[in-house]
DNA sequence: CTGTTAGCGCTTTCAA
DNA sequence: TTGAAAGCGCTAACAG
């Protein structure tokens, strides 16, 4: 609890050198005579001097901070993205400033515009449609976006949701499922991609698809919508859920309703959150490699910041995780 | 992509006033004549002026940023804490700079000391023992700590782990369990408190307690240790796990091993992570109210920052969540 | 190798 | 109600 923290001038005075020398010394920008370096070292430690990062940032224009905006940090998909991104950032001397938009895009633009003034770059996961995002290109800071973009010239990192969905559908089809349903979440930009992959597969096989739509990508929504899917006259024999959270909620409620998974109905999801492996039955899902996506986005952003050239789109291949929630039938 | 962002001086020139006037105007520190305010408003919007927060921070010494340090952001307990803390921070105009120590305390001190120079205050969750934490009181920034402290004069927010553990044990005891075991995590500072609560209950009833210790508070560890707990000659009839993650991992593996929960063995945990409700059987646990803890810690910190007096310790009462993983026996 | 000199963009007395 | 002036703590040419 010092009265006033020592400044670079105090150090300069104590070591009998100029502030420029102190500055260069602490930044390792230059070597000095042993005598000077010794004086500097002792002055710094005896004063307990710490360089003020704010002053430094103001002049260099760099904050060593990256903004990361996600939709809901309690969703394991996003926690993992954050984990991966944060690890890479830390390794390279950066910190992460988090924005959790909590699925409410109203203040998103303001929030991100403000954020952009305090960071060296940002990584954004958003529900906005591409045409609502033009302002992002105006932001005068490097930015990496999660998801693929057709128009906007922004570097992106995306999972291949179309092919992940195709794989999942193909898998269900080959196991003999005939009445497949999709419990989607149309507010998401990835919903269409997943739906596209499912349709491509089922259309080719001449199989019908029933679609349900959730209001939120959550455990509670999967639970809530279960009865209407499972207790109708046309119960599907397989359900593809928009994500694992919904799948887990659905499976629990199905159990309560006396519908056995996978005996009566197969269930699959997306994301490969850790918990899907620990339910009974364990959930078959598409691993989107969340942590790796976060790490890749951060690597890409830091490359942009360093001025290195980067691909516009980095795709991360999804991977099917076969588990017990899926069962062969009519074989 | 402007060449150079407009500064307060550009605005002053465009509006024909001094920079001091612009400064006061944008900060709402003072009202001006309608003529001046109009000129200011139009100059600001036509130039697209944005106040540079770095310059402002340097001079005011406030960054409107709070540092939050947690042990593992993919653990739902911490995601929820972050959620609660972030929400409160945002509501009051603050952002959260996240530190994920990833259960490795080696660089923790350095990281936090550096962090302290970039934020207005910080909230810390740490595995450090109290005597290793004295340096925290030297940090010249408000700080709120998670967990109770006996010596250090730091404001804290803590769950009452002792009483939570007591409740849990009492519950098991009243259901007739006789051979209770604890799968703990001794690296954690809360492990002792939980163990204390368990012991207080069991000792009073003259019941023995077997203790196992995990290397990490994770799903994988619960899974790994299951066999040695369950396949020994003295299988317990109830297991209290350090947290829900371990409990879920344990339950899954128990199933694989042919041990039925709760028929053969009751299992309970701590935290009340959302996923415990969606397994079969659903997990009985102690709700530590993670999100509320995060929110409370942030409220407390912001109060300290505003200079308001705060209690040293805020305790959040834990709550027992009864679910199917526990069963009456020998009744 | 080391120092001098200008500021970065903003806030803040203090005067007018 | 408005402005002049003095920096915040630091870096970045440029000189020597």
Automatic annotation (TrEMBL), chains A, B:
InterPro entries linked: HTH_LacI (IPR000843), LacI/GalR-like_sensor (IPR046335), Lambda_DNA-bd_dom_sf (IPR010982), Peripla_BP_I (IPR028082)
UniProt key word Transcription: yes
UniProt keyword annotation of Transcription regulation present: yes
Alphabetic keyword roster: DNA-binding, Transcription, Transcription regulation
SMART domains associated with the record: HTH_LACI
Domain of life: Bacteria
Residue span(s) of domain HTH lacI-type: 6-60
Pfam family for this entry, one: Peripla_BP_3
GO MF term set: DNA-binding transcription factor activity; transcription cis-regulatory region binding
UniProt name for this protein: LacI family transcriptional regulator
Organism of derivation: Massilia horti
């Amino acid at each position: 609890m010092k009265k006033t923290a020592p400044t670079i001038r105090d150090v300069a005075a104590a070591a009998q050198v100029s502030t420029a020398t102190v500055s260069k010394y602490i930044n390792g920008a230059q070597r000095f005579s042993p005598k000077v370096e010794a004086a500097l070292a002792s002055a710094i430690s005896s004063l307990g001097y710490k360089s003020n990062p704010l002053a430094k940032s103001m002049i260099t224009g760099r904050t060593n901070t990256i903004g990361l905006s996600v939709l809901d940090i309690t969703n394991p998909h996003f926690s993992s993205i954050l984990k991966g991104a944060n690890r890479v950032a830390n390794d390279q001397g950066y910190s992460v400033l988090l924005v959790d938009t909590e699925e409410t895009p109203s203040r998103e633009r303001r929030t991100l515009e403000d954020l952009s003034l305090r960071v060296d770059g940002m990584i954004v996961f958003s529900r906005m449609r591409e045409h609502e995002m033009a302002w992002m290109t105006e932001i005068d800071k490097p930015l990496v976006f999660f998801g693929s973009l057709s128009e906007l010239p922004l570097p992106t990192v995306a999972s291949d949701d179309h092919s992940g969905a195709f794989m999942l559908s193909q898998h269900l089809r080959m196991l003999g499922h005939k009445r497949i349903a999709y419990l989607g979440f149309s507010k998401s930009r990835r919903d269409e991609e997943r739906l596209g992959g499912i349709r491509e597969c089922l259309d080719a096989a001449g199989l019908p698809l029933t679609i349900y739509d959730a209001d939120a990508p959550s455990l509670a929504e999967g639970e809530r919508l279960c009865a209407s899917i499972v207790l109708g006259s046309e119960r599907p024999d397989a359900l593809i859920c928009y994500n694992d959270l919904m799948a887990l909620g659905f499976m629990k409620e199905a159990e309560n309703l006396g519908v056995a998974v996978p005996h009566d109905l197969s269930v699959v999801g997306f994301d490969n959150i850790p918990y899907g492996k620990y339910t009974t039955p364990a959930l078959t899902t598409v691993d989107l490699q969340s942590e790796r996506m976060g790490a890749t986005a951060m690597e890409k952003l830091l490359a942009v910041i360093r001025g290195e050239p980067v691909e516009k789109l980095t795709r991360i291949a999804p991977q099917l995780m076969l588990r017990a929630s899926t069962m062969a039938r009519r074989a």
